[in-house]
Request: fold
Amino acid sequence: MSKESYSQSTSNFESFREKHKDEWHFDPSVKSTDYQYLGRLKTNYEPLLELMKDDNNFNLIQIVEENPEHSALNQRIEEFKKWGFTEHNTKSFQMTDKQFPEIFKPFKEFSGLKHCNVVALKQYPGQFLPWHIDTLVGIRKEYDIPDDVDVVRYSLVLEDWKWGHYFLAGNSVFHQWKQGDIIQLPPNMHHTTCNSGIEPKLTMTVTGVITEESRKLAEKQNFVY
Reply:
């Protein structure tokens, strides 16, 4: 891709950077800590990991698929495509707590979040989640959550770190994790994940409304279920 066409393809990100320039430095040379480590969930992972061995238990998601109900998201998808992301390198397998409520129960209840949605993800080698922010519009729409109510998303890893598995938040690389480690991003923090390794990458998102209980658990890093 030429310099000119790449510049044109990043127009949405450039607009975002201008709008939010007072919230973050947007300087790739700065050594900044751009995620918060919350702690580690101690629970029984085996039932979920056993379930995740079979791809038939998942829904196949392609990040560049357009959503007819979300025009703003479709603009972002068009930008992903211009960057070079395709249906071939943005696949992931996803399953939710609504599909397997009993197995997902520990991962839904440990956090103390209200209106909590949980998604387990499997990324095979060669798959990417492009540079983006979490809009959280889906959960707000599902539960009719007003914009002035705080919604948070935790990222939780389901296995110990393996070579080639990475999570980049802003300028900070999260890797060499242990099973159950949990991180949280500041609002509007761009991030990306990839699997450039040799084994599937198994992670989870836990999204919900902040409560007093969830605040206390996060402060104490006391996640046991």
The CA atoms of residues 24 and 84 lie 26 Å apart.
